[in-house]
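Weekly sync notes, structure subgroup
Attendees: PM, AL, DS (notes)

Item 1: joint prediction request from the bench team. They want all five components modeled as one assembly rather than separately. Inputs as received:
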Amino acid sequence: MSRYLKTSKDEIGLSPQELVFRGQRKVDEILLRIMDFNESKVEEILIKSATDLQEYLNNESVTWFNVDGLHDLDLIQDIGAALQLDQLLLADVLETNARPKIHEYEDWIFLSLKMVQYNEEKKHFSVENISIIFNDNILISFQEKKSDVFEPIRERIRNQKRTLRSSKTDYLLFALLDTVIDHYLYVLSLFGEKIESFEEVLLDKPDKNIIEKINLFKKELNYIRKGIKPAREMILALSKIESDFIHKKNDVHFKELVNNINQASDSLDSYRELLSDQLNIYHMIISSKLNDIMKFLTIFSVIFIPLTFIAGIYGTNFEFLPELQFKYGYFIMLGIMVIISILMLFYFKRKKWL
Amino acid sequence: MSRYLKTSKDEIGLSPQELVFRGQRKVDEILLRIMDFNESKVEEILIKSATDLQEYLNNESVTWFNVDGLHDLDLIQDIGAALQLDQLLLADVLETNARPKIHEYEDWIFLSLKMVQYNEEKKHFSVENISIIFNDNILISFQEKKSDVFEPIRERIRNQKRTLRSSKTDYLLFALLDTVIDHYLYVLSLFGEKIESFEEVLLDKPDKNIIEKINLFKKELNYIRKGIKPAREMILALSKIESDFIHKKNDVHFKELVNNINQASDSLDSYRELLSDQLNIYHMIISSKLNDIMKFLTIFSVIFIPLTFIAGIYGTNFEFLPELQFKYGYFIMLGIMVIISILMLFYFKRKKWL
Amino acid sequence: MSRYLKTSKDEIGLSPQELVFRGQRKVDEILLRIMDFNESKVEEILIKSATDLQEYLNNESVTWFNVDGLHDLDLIQDIGAALQLDQLLLADVLETNARPKIHEYEDWIFLSLKMVQYNEEKKHFSVENISIIFNDNILISFQEKKSDVFEPIRERIRNQKRTLRSSKTDYLLFALLDTVIDHYLYVLSLFGEKIESFEEVLLDKPDKNIIEKINLFKKELNYIRKGIKPAREMILALSKIESDFIHKKNDVHFKELVNNINQASDSLDSYRELLSDQLNIYHMIISSKLNDIMKFLTIFSVIFIPLTFIAGIYGTNFEFLPELQFKYGYFIMLGIMVIISILMLFYFKRKKWL
Amino acid sequence: MSRYLKTSKDEIGLSPQELVFRGQRKVDEILLRIMDFNESKVEEILIKSATDLQEYLNNESVTWFNVDGLHDLDLIQDIGAALQLDQLLLADVLETNARPKIHEYEDWIFLSLKMVQYNEEKKHFSVENISIIFNDNILISFQEKKSDVFEPIRERIRNQKRTLRSSKTDYLLFALLDTVIDHYLYVLSLFGEKIESFEEVLLDKPDKNIIEKINLFKKELNYIRKGIKPAREMILALSKIESDFIHKKNDVHFKELVNNINQASDSLDSYRELLSDQLNIYHMIISSKLNDIMKFLTIFSVIFIPLTFIAGIYGTNFEFLPELQFKYGYFIMLGIMVIISILMLFYFKRKKWL
Amino acid sequence: MSRYLKTSKDEIGLSPQELVFRGQRKVDEILLRIMDFNESKVEEILIKSATDLQEYLNNESVTWFNVDGLHDLDLIQDIGAALQLDQLLLADVLETNARPKIHEYEDWIFLSLKMVQYNEEKKHFSVENISIIFNDNILISFQEKKSDVFEPIRERIRNQKRTLRSSKTDYLLFALLDTVIDHYLYVLSLFGEKIESFEEVLLDKPDKNIIEKINLFKKELNYIRKGIKPAREMILALSKIESDFIHKKNDVHFKELVNNINQASDSLDSYRELLSDQLNIYHMIISSKLNDIMKFLTIFSVIFIPLTFIAGIYGTNFEFLPELQFKYGYFIMLGIMVIISILMLFYFKRKKWL
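Output from the run, pasted for the record:
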């Protein structure tokens, strides 16, 4: 299946309200975590069914409801019912292959983006879709599988009484998005290190392996780019949105998000350019080497070709071949050969081939 | 005839109201299908002439009138008369080679775009023009030939009482356009699969065939792009239009259309870039191989050239050639040859050609 | 003289009101044609001097005054006097090398663009400047030489009582511009046919001729582009102009013009890209072929070089060369040669050169 | 010193009001020319010191004060004092290496741009900075050295009573800028002629010289571009400025300037593209030739390599080599050689190398 | 660590108010310099702790507080407390790896950009982050290490009573930014000199070294670009900001900044393009040389190959080889060889290979 664009024939013409989970099932059990907090308290519980949500809906504190795993349509449906979510909004949450976007619904704002994460152990990075729905008091985040991406934020909620605890959902949203973008920057910097290290290999020992590596990184960067570029559009739209759920005083944070995603986007472009330049340089070096090789071969052949020809002539068995009877014929031949070689070398010198 | 731009000398200077069918006749008989529905009923009939349209014009229900085949100018003219369509509008419908566009007329909105469809059996994809005219109660869709593209929507109208049945033409329009864009995404994902599979061949066994394939896909993508890019403009214009026929509450759907066509357009660009990168990589690999081959040839020739020359010298028939009389002359010659070879190999090692 | 930009030292610093005909004289005699029409009548006459214009100035009907040939400055001056045209406007008309543009004067709108025309007989296309001045009742079109480009429009005026005859100059203007753009599309489609046909030659028998052809078409497209791109700007400006001479009800036509010129511009870009891709493909195929040739040469040489060397050794005339006395020496040598060849072939197989 | 960007360490951190002449002294003596005119009179004098300016400051006529040469800081200072110019404005005038720009001061408008001029005799073109300050009655133009660039305008002021004499400084400004842009167009057309002539050489006899020429022109065009592109921005800003010193009725002229500089900018881009295409074509032709050469060498070598090998075998001195005793051994060998050659040629034919 | 993007896993998910110094410690001791001035006095002192700041906070004079070195978090914290700075603002100051940006806080404006400096002695350039916070009376500049970059401005404050001393912080800000941009221009002009000098080497003696140099400069320019491009955005935003701290009368200076940074940005692009063109030209010249070499080798080989073959034939030891007995056999062979050579040369002449 194509990696860049995942879509299947069955989806064509479906109603947008139709709930279909189009992604891969990446987790066994769906995990429902609630974190309910205000300046004075933090409450953390795991719930089993959507009905447990009820009590958090109308309290004054900020409720962060995190859903890990999306494959159980009934559960998602129940969550929708409990929160009185529009069917369309639920469909948006399930469409994990969609382009990052932001939609303002009447009572909620929906946004989605791709999370790029590097797995230290498995030495590869993964891309996962994250959807967030929020109003002034509740923020629900949907992830495809259980992850510890947002653990530092939980830690901040638990320990720090400052900003996070005393703010509404908009600051929590900022913290979540900031974490996602920090991961972009981190993964890009890992890529960057590798890419910058190619340079040396390239100048020292250019071969097919390095092309394959450059090619691989080019594709990986393009793949990540498909997540970052629309995320940038989305963040930009978010920073300009006029909504009751986003409070004036947090404008500076959303501007910061724009700045950070711009940095990610700039770096991505720089690395792409670097890779293109490296391919270019590779080509130049290969051409240059081929030139050197050909020069060497040419000089060598061209010097020996006439000498071998002369030896060939005196190797013929003609009955009457006067030079063969000359006393010093052999030495004269050798002398002529030396002279020809020297003339050749002069000629190459003048042609700047030596 | 050029595939990208179809126009003939005869069309120059024609009045825009002139009705000429400029496409190819792709169907034998024109098929006129009516689907008339509201929340409580669905009526489906095939009509034979435009006069049968009359009764659906002023009822309250939504009427979807689908025309498959455009070659019968009289019939089109009759439809125009029955619906009191502007001559210009009819001309727009017939101009199947035109660029996707949207025009607001006084009583109607006209829009056209290209449908890209993949034929599973014939293993090729086809491009067809679709025109849609609609006001608040009637939507007329014109296709060049009979197709089952919109069958899923008919099915939804028949079975689901939800949104489609309870909305006006704008939601039907959304459903139709959504289907068209879903087909874009589907065809692109098929292309993508193929294109991504080239990579392996490229790195493993690069030859002329793969270039021809890359070239072919490049052209096909360019061809599809000529449909998608202006369709994107059109969808964007549609999402911003202020018309009585498009109701506020459906804004979210038209935004979704924009998002989807953006995804199609992004993917298309990604694949085009991928193909360019592949060509580039191909070139690098070919250069790299040529380099290897030349290195091998050079090393080989350069080692044997002087050896053969030496053998040639002692193959001459000079009467007086002292070395030939040496007892171990032959073995000395062989020894010198071995030494020369070793020196050569050392030189190549230092030059990093080995 | 440069084809892309024609300007001479004499023009520098001239007053913009200065009337100089800077083009080439392309016609012997200037032809002045008047077509005066309204719904009820059509009058066509050829006039000899500008004074004959007088009677058409103040009548209610639409007057289309066509001037073929611009080299007679006195006549142009007279026309200017008769119509009370600003000196600047006349200078604009004469500057046939200028960039397509639109200027609103107090009583007139001036616009100019390039006409691209294909001459069926001479098998080449020509570019000509067309200037149009119009107010509500009079439209004057200036062409560099007599041509039948606008004949279909004259025919429509003569025969059809519809739109053209019952409208003001704005519809006539639309008809003229539409014709010009139709010619763009037609010429581009002719180019397209040729360009698309290169593909086959390219893949089958790539040689220097095809590069020269691609190069030629690239230049021709660039040349036409210099006419179409600013014409597009001009048409866009025209479609947005707010003038008493352009009536609301014809907006749809001017939008259509924008759409058509966009199609021309899109196609032009597609063809330019196609040509670039073709050059690229050409390069790939040439590289691929060179690779094949070098592989063949290398394999062949590398197999025979050591064999020839061995033969050379046994061709030496050393007095004491033991192998020569072996009874089956010759056959052993042949055997060794066969073994060497086979080993070589294996090596190449493993290197994937075979 | 870099040609594209001239700046020195000493300038860093200087006050913007600091008057430093950063250019080269291009003239011995500074020339101060005054042209004072209205519809009824023209007065031309050379003045020696800035105090002579006084009497022209408050009269009603238009005063054009031209300064050739900028190296005498005291004199520039005096002029500033006489005209009550802001220190900043004077600093702007002296900064001849700056980017073309326009600044509105309280009582003056300042603008600067690069003059590109072709010297017919010395066969090279020169770039010079021109600064203009003007209010409604006075226009001061500063040039780096004495030149006759504006002579045609002086001539028009002297002879024609029309527009120039009866207008304010804005029309004079237009005339000056128009002249500068005409020079752009003229120099570009000279470049164009040369560039278009490369084509023929390229297709006929591609060698290193033509690359060096193309490279040279590319650099020269880039250099000129650094003057034209910001000049275009400046002219655009000027055409949109709302100032008391620029009168409504001259709008049409400033629009014309925009049009002309657009044409210059378009042509420049076209020529740059042409040069890039030529380099590309050069590369293709070189590759094509290399291919031909290699094909020839390969065919030739490959035919003779086995033949020479066979001759080598029968040149060996084995005591027992049966074929040598065959009566027609020699002719059989020749026959086999002919057959091998023919088979080779067939093979090449099939491979399409012949 | 990647040079383009520096970020570490530890930073992910941190609160934006968290104070962490993420840069390298570039200086031993933090230096706190105060310059307090108005038209009548200048006071310069070094302070040891943030509390010494107190007395300068509420006076009327302009206070410029310069901090060299950022690694002592406590000190930075104290400064923040003394000036009542928002925690966020302090965090911004410490984030030395961030993208240049501008943020308006309630009582302060914050901006940061990269300083590019060339070290004359060490022959390399360095990049350093500079942050500036200012309100109407106080401007605090933070540098990563002690530097004399702003010394010329201190000198101007000390000596000149003009503008700097009589203005508010906005003019001081302008002076600081102007200095930074002047350094951009200076470093770019040094780069430019080097880059322009490559040309000659390239045309004269193209080898691998020059590619490595071009590659190095390309990377360095890209690196600087990552500082200049967002600085340009920042300066542009600054020139458009509406703040009480930036006074109308200094608009002209901020416009000048925009102009200067545009010049830097233009030059950077020009140099990047120049380097790309040089790589291109390099490739063309290398291809051209390879062509020459191959031509030479081909001509040489192709002439000698048949001659050596003929000699080989008469070197065979067939018992019956009639030509060997001819009296003038040897001379006839030599004659035939001469004729073959001449025919070859003719053929090459016709093929334009000679």
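Discussion: Chain B is about 55% helix and 15% strand.
Action: AL to compare against the crosslinking data before next sync.
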